[in-house]
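Researcher: Here's the sequence for the chain we discussed earlier.
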Amino acid sequence: MTVTTSTAGHHSASLDLGVIGNCSIAALIDRRARIVWGCFPRFDRDPVFCSLIDNRGEDGDDEPEKGFFGIELVGMTRCEQGYLDNTAILSSVLSDDQGNAIEILDFAPRFVRYERFFRPPQLVRRVRRVSGRPRIRVLVKPCLGIGEEPDEITRGSNHVRYVGADQTIRLTTNAPLSYVVEGTPFAVDQSYSFFIGSDEALRAEIETTSREFLDKTTDYWRDWVRSLSIPFEYQKEVIRAAITLKLCSFEETGAIVAALTTSIPEAPGTQRNWDYRYCWLRDAYFVVHALNRLGTTRTMEDYLGFITNIVDTFSESGAEHLPPLYPITRGGSLTEFEARNLSGYRGHKPVRFGNGAATQIQNDGYGAVVLAATHSFFDRRLIQPGKEALFGQLERMGELAIAYFDKPDAGPWELREKEAVHSFSSVMCWTACDRLARIAGTLGRADRKEFWKGEAKRLKATIAEQIWNETKGHFVSTFGGEDLDATLLLLAELGFVKPDDARFVATVEAIGRDLKRGDLLLRYATQDDFGYMHTGFLICAFWYVDALNAIGRSEEAKELFGRILQRRNSFGLLSEDADLKTGELWGNFPQTYSHVGLINCAMRLSRDWEEAF
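Model: Thanks. This is the structure I predict for it:
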């Protein structure tokens, strides 16, 4: 996919961004080929490039003064961008009206070296002349600390060090260093490379190393894509979503973050600005499901390892409530605070770091962990399959599910001032018992299988009675309630009801009537802590597509899926939310959940390869 932008006039901040990364770090690149977001030395650290959430104008149209890395073609009027096929390497061709043009290749090195993955906290930018006699201006304006300029800038023969109190960033380049430091334009009469990342010396020739890293990173991504299991239809969409999902994984621990950013508002002016650079247990089953369908066994096993490490730690702690989210290393603080010195995405404050939802009670987590871990007991490809010891720890999750299935919590939407017995949380607790029975069966534990089957049956009877509203004629979002929410679309997916159950069919139809807005869905139509919803939550639209397909409305599902795909940005990526009328993307970006939904829908809706030709 190649997209062209005219760069004349207004330059509004937007989520029309490309992403690059290497499973240690990631960066977002805008339609002028500027790096506008990137954290070092990993996803959840302070952003070195933060101009995406520090736009001084209400519309984000002020030129940033800091927090970005720009390579500007003097007189630029056009920018054509696209990924090299089947890679996470972004090409930007900048041109003017006089026949001058350059290409920038952006990537984060990732390849096998010395029998292990080489994935340094480092970005590489390669610049070459395409035509004419182009002149560029290089503007490197990192922040160290949250939104703070470096305390000191020092120079060597081919590098610049940006020194802060807690971190130092090094730029190494074969470009004229004085021009780079001073922002002076110069002609591109040879290829130039820029390495930016941790304060480590590059002990090799710059241009040769840059070429080597590019070639090996290209080979890595193309080999990885070759190994994917993809549907016959929607191949490009699934490949890009799969690469994006991979880029949201922190390979060192196996964690997969919900998104790479913080504080992109779910909707303008709502203060629904949250930090998503963490791992939510709620996502676990759906992420494992997508990874399994793609055949990315190693990434899936690493992620399962992260989840089972959480189980180990929680079991040892003796705690009663499982936190709903974790840092990518499972350690460190998630204390939420506001960075008042950052003006926010398009001026929308607050900018938050950390996430207060970590201290909430969310009872669906027990089921989420058991659901995800269940896979390890049935997949013979895994090097570390589930065994008796893990089953014993998962039984503790089941015990807590039994204890809390009918107790109030913040629910799947993490309400901050309201609690109720949420249907989704209760069904997930039932799921924990149901899957434990299945695990016990495969382990030959007949006694435990019967115990968990009995508990699942008991919980299901209570839950089914409490979440069915006879007057409304559909399932509802809370025990004894009247309202709908989109998680009810998952009841068949989770196995709580069969897809042809008249109650489920009626619920899907009610959601289509009451929550659907155009091609998108609200999470719920009721007022919460911050008012009413003003954007569609993209994963809910994918759930609706799956539910339509499950109840036999397959053609309608396929048509709707095609229209939802049009909400992707120019690079084929999705955020969390989209404007109900314009389709403009809002919310943190790129959103793991949205891409997982895309993958799972595509797999279900596509024709089989055997049917294709």
